Amino acid sequence: MVSDSPLQNEKPRCKAEFLIFALVMMFMLTIAVLLPLFPNDFWPYVRIGQEIVSTARIPDAEFMTYTRFGEPAVYLYWLPSLIFWELNKLGGVTIISFFTALCVGSFYTFLWFCLRELKVGALTSAFVLILTGLVGVNYWATRPQLLSYPLFGFALLAILRWQNGDNKLIWFLPLVAMLWANLHGSFIVLFFLLAPALIFGSGNRKKLILIIILSLAATCINYYGFGLWANMFSMVNNQAIRAFSVEWASPTNEGWQANLFYATLLAIPVLTTFIKSKVKFLYWVWFIGFGWMALSTVRYGVWFLPIEALLLGMILSPLFARHLEGINRFQNLGFNRLLGVLLLFFPIALLPGLRAAWWQQSPPVYSSTTPVEAVVWLKANPQLPDNLWSDFTFSTYMTSALSERSLFMTNRFEDFPLEQFDHNKRIAQADFDWQSLLDQYGVNLLMPSIENQPDLIVAASASLAWKEVYRDEQAVIFARIDPLLSGVSK
User: Fold this and answer.
1) Which of 80, 85, 299, 389 can pair with 144 through a Cys bridge, CB separation 3.0 to 4.6 Å?
2) 306, 114 contact by CB (below 8 A)
């Protein structure tokens, strides 16, 4: 039988292994806590969590905008909404950032154990995790999908151990499936791991068949029951999501991270011709399947990176073993453990709310697309008329930060018709009918982004129907001179 290991004779683990692991985790966690809080997929879920808590039920209608208020809506991600709401209430951005780092750290810890399960050396594991981690940073935003990353990592480790004859962890997969189904629609990815393992894997297939059946049944233990599957596929195939969401577009080779992604993707088959490594067929099936997903849609790239790390680790392991692994450095085990623990705790000092106390030029807590100052000003001026159109990303922040205002749209694409997305785009671009569209929707407040809607700012400034009432580095706010009656503030 072909060994999973690219090394025929496994060497004893070096005394610096924990130190190497701690260095990798410090790198990952430092990036995670320094990332600004992006509004897109966080604040709307905070608002949903607030609604669930205040009404003691999961909503069944749209409630965050005036344009679709009361229309039927499905809230699949109710559990992340409650988690985000509680975290925000508990400790604001500090706790939120800590939680994000915990999810990222757990994910890469499981991937570390996956590589070690394949007998990939510590330095090789560190290299491939940092390499794929740099590509995957864009997927670390605080959002419902983030909560599923540790589940993916655990599932991958369980399957690798099953492949090596250890069946203990696979019995937890039905529980993973149930939790994942209540967290995010990507729970189907679990079965993209399990199905090829059943066909091409070398573990106990009878046990795995039972695990798959139990896992499928476990996904139905949720608020929507079996309807979760139908709702999930409906969301994935939603025309508005496909047409207007950047995440659902095919990736392009633009920027250094995309360059690195395509370089590693192409390097794996090339390296196999020069470095003779023994990789089981199952891993190539995963590579092709998840690689196709990553190339078809930006959103799916996060699931390919762990598979890429596994193959890179197995392919590069013979090379690293000859030249780097096993070198007698950092052999003081006690010192290595102490230093490793200190490295793991270091990112805590970088948390928002803590780093400002000692780092004067610390990175911003919120992204540049978060209109914090403009929202504070709007809260201080409740006399302004209601029905607010804003930059699309601005609106995602205001779903929670300015819930007392009636908003035009949110980023829940499935809640809005294609026509409204088209109208929103035409307003943002100040097309010929921008004013008539604002009249049609009864918009009385206009909040364009200085960066994204300069033409709209120019058009509104020149219009006799609008007057500028506020401006900062991010946004301009215009109020209608003669407010439409339908837009009078509540």
Assistant:
1) 80
2) yes
Q: Report the C-alpha gap between 56 and 350 in whole angstroms.
A: 36
Query: Any alpha helices (H) in 118-238, and if so which ranges?
Result: 122-136, 149-163, 173-183, 189-200, 205-218, 227-236
Tell me the two tokens of residue 65.
Answer: 């905008």
Angle at Cα 181 formed by Cα 238 and Cα 147, nearest 5°?
95
Q: Looking at residue 55, what is its pLDDT?
A: 96
Q: Could you tell me the pTM of the whole model?
A: 0.92
What is the Cα–Cα distance from 301 to 375, expressed in whole angstroms? 34
Q: What pairs with residue 470 in β-bridges?
A: 477
CB burial of 451-472 (b: ≥16 within 10 Å; e: otherwise) equals ebbeebbebbeebeebeeebee
Q: CB atoms < 10 A from the CB of 263, how many?
A: 12
Contacts (Cβ under 8 Å, ≥6 apart) of 176: 151, 154, 155, 190, 215
Where in the chain are the domains? 17-40+76-343, 372-487
Q: Which residues pair with 445 in a beta bridge?
A: 388, 479
Q: CA-to-CA distance for 331 and 20, rounded, in angstroms? A: 12
* Pick from 125, 141, 78: nearest CA to 317: 125
- With b for 16 or more beta-carbon neighbours within 10 A and e for fewer, the 21-52 pattern comes to bbbbbbbbbbbbbbbbbbbbbbbbbbbbbbbb
Q: Find, among 99, 74, 103, the residue nearest to 89 by Cα.
A: 99
Classify residue 397 by its DSSP letter: H
Q: How confident is the model over 389-443, as pLDDT tens digits? A: 999 999 999 999 999 999 999 999 999 999 999 999 999 999 999 999 999 999 9
Q: How far apart are CA 373 and CA 24, in angstroms?
A: 37
- CA 324/CA 327 separation, integer angstroms: 6
Residue 482, SS3 per DSSP: coil
